[in-house]
Fold this protein.
Amino acid sequence: MSQQPFSISREVILGVGGGIAAYKSCDLIRRLKDHGFLVTVIPTRSSLNFIGSATWEALSGRPVQSELWNNVHEVPHISMARKADAIVIAPATADLIARIASGRADDLLTNVVLASSSPLILVPAMHSEMWLNPATVSNVETLRKRGVTVIDPAIGNLSSGDKGIGRYPETLEIVQTLNDVLHQSSDLLNRKILISAGGTREMIDPVRYIGNNSSGKQGIALAIDAASRGAKVSLVIANAPDVYVEGIEIVHVSSAIEMFDAMDSRFSDSDIVVMSAAVADVRPATNSQEKIIKSELQSLALTENPDIIATLSVRKTAKQVIVGFAAQTGSEWLDNGRAKLASKKLDLVYVNNVSGGAIFGKEKTSGVIINSNGTDTSIEEMSKLALAHKLLTLAIEKLG
Ligand code: CTP
């Protein structure tokens, strides 16, 4: 099965210009990664005199390329430009600023800049005279008019021994600017989120199973939203399309018992646990190794599966928030969902009415979020990603 790639909108290219302040981008890359960004470094040729590719590869955990002439068949400047959610160039030298302002494309970095429509942030660092030179002033003005974010350099000691404007700013100011430009919130930064998704399959024999219609889309949406808010995410997924989201731990399981084990071993370490999987309540008492012939399939002895979330929530601490889902049918659907919140010791439960096969596999969802604080939130025709965002926002409020 081919993997379906998802983006968490935190893919950043860090361009490094050839200034002495290049070493400060070693700290920047670490701070970006702390904030949940995935970073590819593109150093200019001259910057390699200050910091070599090996350092960038080690810090980013990714291969580093600065020339156009490697992997030409992959057309790297176009693929990199398309993949990037933002480009940060730090330090941006006077020469690099001039080349970008005039639309030059004579190395990999400037090619990527020219081919990208994503936000561009320049972090100039140079001697005061160069920053204040009319040529640089005019180039910066041109770039700002085109919508490029140019952070003003800080004032202080310069490498020449002089004092003045031109210093590389604080790395956290750069990270903050990037978050602002991307409208990213990092309200789940360093939080651990454990999510289950999909539907379990309980094997009857090598070819048949007890299963359900869950597509896994809601759980995947939760994982993407959590990761895009800076969380460390583990997604335990059963029988859903194979997904790939860089930066997210994806654990493939099939049966309820396998899902229980994967959730159980990660539970204590998690701040928020979201149980969006549809778990089969029962499994065949015996799993036949041979295909069972029709005449012996008239009835099936069943054994109850563990209730994963109810079992885990017994161990819940005051610092954890547990979110459940309840797909109900019939006129009592909302009350039955409310009862599950209490019996499974959940903090939040999203209840929906799936009568007639509604919701499963669809892009939009409608239902009610029941909060243990007594408030209900009605959800009307919302995308699964928007519901994921809403649920996690409520979970964060409960985390305090
Ligand atoms: N759940 C679970 N383990 C199970 C069954 C359900 O962790 N063995 C979780 C689901 O992932 C969901 C919540 O419990 O978050 C409610 O699931 P649901 O199937 O609606 O509830 P059940 O307890 O199975 O109740 P019933 O099937 O009788 O409606």
